[in-house]
Amino acid sequence: MKKGDHLFLVDGSGYIFRAYHGLPPLTRKSDGLPVGAVAGFCNMLWKLMVSARDTEVGVTPSHFAVIFDYSSKTFRNELYDQYKANRSAPPEDLVPQFGLIRDATRAFELPCIEIEGFEADDLIATYCRLATEAGGDTTIISSDKDLMQLVSPSVSMYDPMKDREIREPEVIEKWGVPPAKMIDLQALTGDSIDNVPGVPGIGPKTAAQLLEEYGDLDTLLERAGKIKQQKRREVIIANADKARLSRELVRLRTDVPVPETLDELVLHPLNGPKLISFLKAMEFTALTRRVADKTDTDLASVGKAKVEVETGAEAHGPDLDTGEPRPAPDKDTSFPGDRAGKVEGKTPQDLANKRIEEAANSKIDTSAYVTIRDADTLKEWIERAKDIGYVAFDTETTSLDPMQAELCGFSLCSEPGVAAYVPLIHKSGTGDLLGGGLAPDQIDTRTALDLLKPLLEDPSVLKIAQNLKYDLVVMNRYGIDVRPFDDTMLISYVLDAGKGGHGMDVLAERWLGHRTIQFKDVAGTGKAKTTFDYVPIDRATEYAAEDADVTLRLWRALKPRLVADGVVAVYERLERPLVPVLAQMEQRGISVDRQTLSRISGELAQKAAALEDEIYELAGEKFSIGSPKQLGDILFGRMMLPGGSKTKTGQWSTSVFVLEELAAEGHELPRKIVDWRQLTKLKSTYTDALPEYIHPETKRVHTSFALAATTTGRLSSSEPNLQNIPIRTSEGRRIRTAFVAEPGNKLISADYSQIELRLLAHIADIPELKHAFENGLDIHAATAAEMFGLDVEKVPTDVRRQAKTINFGIIYGISAFGLATRLGISREEAGDYIKRYFDRFPGIRNYIEGTKKRARDRLYVETIFGRRAYYPEIKASNPQTRAFNERAAINAPIQGSAADIIRRAMIRMDDALKQEKLGARMLLQVHDELIFEAPEKEVDETIRIVRAVMEDAAMPAVSLSVPLQVDARAADNWDEAH
């Protein structure tokens, strides 16, 4: 090596964990092998080797090496046996990638250097010294603070994740001291990740102040008695030996007997076939094409390399060049000596904590956002996103209805604080009748989307969004299929269901400490409100680009928690795959017969009018039935009915619960009021409102499904809400007759039979219930037979009805009071029924009590698939609040498991139907029921496939001890099919 040469030293162990935690998970398609960290590592090396001159470093290396830790035991453990003793095992899916990353290094024709007894940092420090002595410069590819002590005029650092060079000014800006004092600063602060003790209570800021005042650690310790602050003085004097020990632990060795000389680190030209052979084995298609183009290699002429995969504590795997085994690491449960986690924390929890801290401390400057007004600039932003490998994306439209919204523009962000908005159809007017035409300097919509489409459909670039389903539907209507993606709303939902909302505004305040710009702030309110295309572009840029910026920051903060909290599988298998499924269902919609609705509406109006007359007669006067105040005055003021209570406003309560109680006691007027309310609600909510939801072009109704609206994982729907159409009343069922199949098709309703009771039998392990389900018995008759010692074939109808009410009520923690109300019996008799039920099925009581205890201990419960439902108020001092949370916690594992099972079925359904070349389309999900539209000639085969998918949906993740049963029928309308 000579003057003018430039050495790149890659902190390989550090980058393994940066790649693993900082990028989305990735598996090899052929066998499911985790390769996300390998992919990130390869892309980083490629960028450094091919375009280093275009990075912040601005040079092309002449020498290059990748440095790894050999094992977790080094000379530092002899100095301090607790050094790194707090390290936990690496994530299970990362272990097989350690050896593969070393193989990748060799495939790039790069030296892969590690030495027993020393950390990678010591090797890096030694090579820096040698290069400086030879007159060369060195760039360390890392952002680890432990390496900042090496920064000098000839040694710099480069953070490839942020494309940021680190020299002395950056070290001072970050830590308050120059590189020469970083050893002393770390000796004072210690390092919780490496278990370096330091001086308790001394943080970086205080340490920097002390070093500035006293010069260095030795002087500080000698003059510690003169420190003015008593507590600080005492703690430093008491821990002086710890500080000296810590200094030796953090000081990097520069005299390691490195195995390769500097001349052996000369960067050789890429061996195209060798690298492509490895990349093909990993199935990294995009990078393989780039390498082939750059090296002029014929892809077809190169086969896949045979690459061994290490598992557990195996050796690092065979050398890619020689085929000889590499030395085995120490038999340690953690990754061999990896100090990689010191970049962002060794464990997933370390990274999660660090990211959350970074998010909370970062500031958002909306004035820094960019407006992209020409195609060339948009191309640059798109290429930037491709290089980085991920991009936050958001759309701005003219409507909340994605099926009718027109795209006003979109925003992009691939780096916190660096975001842009691309306006497309903003108007120059104010939205009134005199509004002008298009504002100047906007990209034509088709031109912009033609440029954007390859990025949004690029499988190598992760798209990050908040509530992506809306954007999916919008972009699908413009011919763009957004894949792959992450959704911050769903990540938050998986992590914190039950702890609060998951909207972007709420999450921004919770995790970023930032109040986002509100839509009303840019679009106005009331009569002055405009659609987004009339928002001035400068204000639109601040609002829209902020959405993308906040989304990216939330993703960086929350995504590592999936691993740290152990809920990756819930997100990857139950949430993320369902997004495109629901988007397709929303786009398909369902046909609704206007004439049927009109006829039902008229009938409901007549019945409501008849009820009104009866109500007036019973009340003895006419009044506004819909007025709670007037109704309360009549029931409890004039008629003096029992059980009246007043609300905070001083009015009598006339809730459904109050009216149902009065009706159960034999009072006729409250019963009529309840019936009237149901009829008028059906009329206003469905028969009158549904025609307004019929799309002008598709002539179908397109509901919107919400994934993150309930604590248990159940879906909900809105605009219109199709989840709450009553099915226990004849009027509610009649509304379903208006949902019809198109000519030549049938609607198929596939409904899980008693799935929650089946799951109760499985989760609580109730032999009697399991036996009944396994043998296809009438579960309610079987329950009654068990409770009352009857022959299952001879259970009276009224006794079966009581058992059915208890069966379903017990899942929701029903009380004696509630059961008495439902069955119309005394509270004492209801209490006796519940006691008898628990005596006969003691496993259910054990489940209930065990669930309540776990919920109180952990503040959450889990479904059989690991979904968590949080109940933070389950230990509330208010008895009613506590009881409500206990009932919800009892129900959540059962209802949530049922919701997870139907999600799994929905995710698999379209592929199963396509595989059988069937034309059926899944249209709706309503709790335990799926609705399909299928060609008449394919109905029988469709039902067979649908039933098979639904009944096997829990497999292979969970093998249920009771069979699932699906009832499926086909008809011309929804009611007849159910």
Written overview of the protein:
Keywords: DNA damage, DNA repair, DNA replication, DNA-binding, DNA-directed DNA polymerase, Exonuclease, Hydrolase, Nuclease, Nucleotidyltransferase, Transferase. It catalyses: DNA(n) + a 2'-deoxyribonucleoside 5'-triphosphate = DNA(n+1) + diphosphate. In addition to polymerase activity, this DNA polymerase exhibits 3'-5' and 5'-3' exonuclease activity. Its EC number is 2.7.7.7. Single-chain monomer with multiple functions. The protein has 978 residues and is an alpha/beta fold. Among the domains are: 211 residues, 3-Layer(aba) Sandwich (Rossmann fold); 213 residues, Nucleotidyltransferase, domain 5 (2-Layer Sandwich); 109 residues, Taq DNA Polymerase, Chain T, domain 4 (Up-down Bundle); 74 residues, no CATH class. Helices cover 48% and strands 10% of the residues. The protein has 39 helices and 22 strands. The strands form 6 sheets. Strands 3-2-1-4-5-6 form a 6-stranded mixed β-sheet. The protein has a 6-stranded mixed β-sheet with strand order 7-10-9-8-11-12, sandwiched between helices. A hairpin with a 5-residue loop joins strand 18 and strand 19. About 3% of the residues have low confidence.
